[in-house]
Amino acid sequence: IDTEWCEQRGIAWTNAPGCNSGSVQQYIASVLASLAQEPGFRFENKTLGVVGVGNVGKKVAHLAEILGFRVLLNDPPRARAEGPEAFVSLEQITSECDIISLHVPLETKGPDATYHLFDAKGLSDLSPHQILINSSRGEVVDNQALKTCLKQGGIKAAVLDVWEKEPAIDLELLDLVLYGTPHIAGYSADGKGNGTTMSVRAIAEKFNLPLKTWQASNLPLPAQSIRPELDCRGKSLQEILCRAILHTYRVEDESRTLKQNPGTFEQQRADYAVRREFGCYTLSLQGAAKPVVEKLSALGFKLEILPE
């Protein structure tokens, strides 16, 4: 929406900031849990950098802290407004982080421009052990430069939910990324419900309608059980967390679908299956230690502790 044009003509507009932040958090959680299937991959031995610490970035940082990552935050506008103590430079992100997750808005000009934030030069600053995740805007990463970087082994892997020139995405790049999805990170039913709630309330406020406390309800349920049993006996904390996360959503399944059918990019978005966030699920736990209970609860799961 051209908000400036609307305002000049007295046309009110609204949006729903943060409505799908939990959905993107779940998407990143699934990516991290999938990466953890690699032998020797330990959350507590990894550093994750969050670039852009707004509605979504804050939740991704919180997720990473729960899982046990060392977390670094980069957000120049917030650092200027709040002080630099909680933030680091992009240079420190690129030099110290094993995984870099992008959550910035697309800005084409000004001191905080993010268009091609990771261009050929930015990507050249990365190392062969690093993983780049982009679920923000496609143009934040120069897709041609990323393709060259991946071909040359400049980074270990890339995960893309957003692309330049969507839906006509680069098929060669799609083959090269570890996981590629059709711009659906924020597509949970919960996120859509939140957006609808915020929009209805904004309209009610504008026109003084009796819907100012309206709430989307009776959201559809996913295909998988929302009350799964999880036997924690003999399993590590990381293994349990990954099993819980991947029960709710498997990013690799959607990546496989897009890689097999790239021509149906838009149709895959239109026909997106019901995905529910962690709070929809009640985990029935057998033999769960206190740290397991605390972390699953912190992720947002409801819990039922089964008797021994």
Topology readout:
Blueprint: H1 3-8, H2 21-35, E1 47-51, H3 55-67, E2 70-74, H4 76-82, H5 90-96, E3 99-102, H6 120-124, E4 131-134, H7 143-151, E5 157-160, H8 171-176, E6 179-180, H9 189-207, E7 229-231, H10 237-248, H11 251-260, H12 265-270, E8 282-286, H13 290-299, E9 302-305
Parallel strand pairs: 1-2, 1-3, 3-4, 4-5, 5-6, 7-8, 8-9
Helix pairs in contact: 2-3, 2-10, 10-13
Please summarize what this structure is.
The protein is of the alpha/beta class. The protein contains 13 helices and nine strands.
CATH superfamily heading of the largest domain: NAD(P)-binding Rossmann-like Domain
Using only CA atoms, what is the Rg? 20 Å
Mean pLDDT reading: 97
Strand content: 5-15%
Shape: globular
For the record, the CATH class of the largest domain is: Alpha Beta
In the sheet with the most strands, the strands line up as 2-1-3-4-5-6
Number of domains: 2
| SSE order, one letter for each helix or strand | HHEHEHHEHEHEHEHEHHHEHE
Category from helices, strands and their pairing: alpha/beta
Instruction: Summarize the biggest pleated sheet.
Output: 6 strands, parallel
Low-confidence stretches: none
